[in-house]
Amino acid sequence: MSRVIKSELLKYISGKMLYICSGILFFLPIFNYVLTKILIASNPETFSQIIDRFSNLSSQEYILNSLAELFSGGGLFIIVIILASSMITSDYSKGTMKYTLLATSREKLILGKIIASGIINFIYIAAASLSIGIIGIVSYNWGSNSHSIIYILATSLLCWITLMGITCLIMFAINRISSVGGAIGLGFGIYFVIGLLSGLLPESYKVPIISANIYKVLEVKWSSLVEILIVGLAYIIVFSGLSLLAFRKKEILS
Amino acid sequence: MNNNLILRTENLSKKFKNKYAVKDVNMNVQEGDIYGFLGPNGAGKTTSIKMMLGFLSSSDGDVYINNKSVKGNREEALKNVGAMVEEPKFYENLTGRKNLQVISELYGKKAKSRIDEVLDIVEMKEAADKKVKKYSLGMRQRLGIARAFLNDPEIVILDEPTNGLDPYGMKSIRELIIKLANKYKKTFIVSTHLLNEVEQMCNKVGIIHNGDLIKEMSMEELKEEKSDDISFEDYFISLTEEARSYE
Ligand SMILES: Nc1ncnc2c1ncn2[C@@H]1O[C@H](COP(=O)(O)OP(=O)(O)O)[C@@H](O)[C@H]1O
Ligand SMILES: [Mg+2]
Fold this sequence. Notes:
The complex is a heterodimer of chains A (254) and B (247).
Chain A: H1 2-14, H2 17-42, H3 48-56, H4 59-72, H5 74-93, H6 97-103, H7 106-139, H8 149-173, H9 180-200, H10 210-217, H11 222-248
Helix pairs in contact in A: 1-7, 2-7, 4-7, 4-8, 5-7, 5-8, 5-9, 7-8, 7-11, 8-9, 8-10, 8-11, 10-11
Chain B: E1 5-16, E2 19-25, E3 28-30, E4 34-38, H1 45-52, E5 60-65, E6 68-69, H2 74-77, E7 81-84, H3 96-107, H4 109-113, H5 115-121, H6 137-149, E8 155-159, H7 167-184, E9 187-192, H8 195-201, E10 204-209, E11 212-218, H9 219-225, H10 232-246
Parallel strand pairs in B: 4-9, 4-10, 7-8, 8-9
Antiparallel strand pairs in B: 1-2, 1-3, 1-5, 5-6, 10-11
Helix pairs in contact in B: 5-6
Bound molecules: adenosine-5'-diphosphate and magnesium ion.
């Protein structure tokens, strides 16, 4: 299986996508930061509240808030969902999967792809975290208040596990779809549905809704972290297992 | 069981919905054969080959490669098989060499060290560092054959490797296959809808028509069986018509 992972990663390292997406995620926090600075400077009165909040932030607070934005908002999710929905279907629909499958088994291929997407997601998160960390340390006072580095790292790790849970769910859901466009569409559909569910359901039923857990991770309560870890891992195990079962029987038509 | 049969199919069948695309095909490929798998478009060549490679599951029957069942243990049975199925497909944005690297990662060390060698064999060394999307069909076919050789297979299965090429391209692919079979002592199964291709390249032929393998014989037998005054073309047509009249 390590061979499948290496081969998948080689494909991404040799292409442009990995660098473009990492670049976008690296520059997004910098762009945000500069834009906020410019807005504040150009219009101090309107943004006085924000100025207050901004100037009192410690490095850790800035980092955690920005991670919260990263994990709960747009850019990263779009990239993760596109990766999860296209990783299998693009290989299948382009007809290249046949040659991968000549050299390995369906089981190893699917698990290898899941792990490779985990590693790629990790690279994306690392790219964004790097610029967030740099801005946090350079522009804010380290201070003594609030969260420890360990908490920040644990939060990021849990967010990563939660994203992987979502990735596995999407990979299973798209197993019957053979076009990349259709798969990406369904991937976003699923993400919106679980987002909707987490908005509609009462608090006590939300635990199993994986995307709701992203927000909970960011509440900074050690007590809920274990719960979130368990749900994330359960998604990964259940949906990678189901993907495996579905893919074992898949007919390679194209 | 005949031991030097490197690949055989046993009642191999595939039903799509309620129609058989391949029905009770019994193929026998011996070591060193260049086996021409001949049949008109839609006869069931690609479907048979996809079952040989475990891409499609057979509705009935099985394929044995070196006496190992593809149904039972696909990975083991396909260990020494290289293939190109339908049009040669690649990661278009990667170079030819990178495409081979991605696949050789899966096979391991030995395949990784063979990349230059296989590029040399198919005379693609110069174009190896260009992106595949810039390749002509003939170059793709060559790179596809190189890919099929990465794992130093005993048997190479090529599905219509000359399809869509101009006469010059066809000839050079044919010559390449003959060279590879002779020089490296590989067994080939080459599917085609062109009888003259089989005539020029193969020592054995299996003729498939409407999913039935209507004949399997050596080219010598075929030459004996066909009377001198009709062409191969006419003989082929008469065979398929004979088969049609049984339906
Ligand atoms: N996925 C499929 N679903 C339904 N019918 C198919 C499928 N693939 C092939 N067929 C049918 O099976 C028959 C054999 O096709 P194929 O093996 O591609 O022929 P060949 O490669 O000899 O041209 C054809 O009638 C084709 O329409
Ligand atoms: Mg075909």
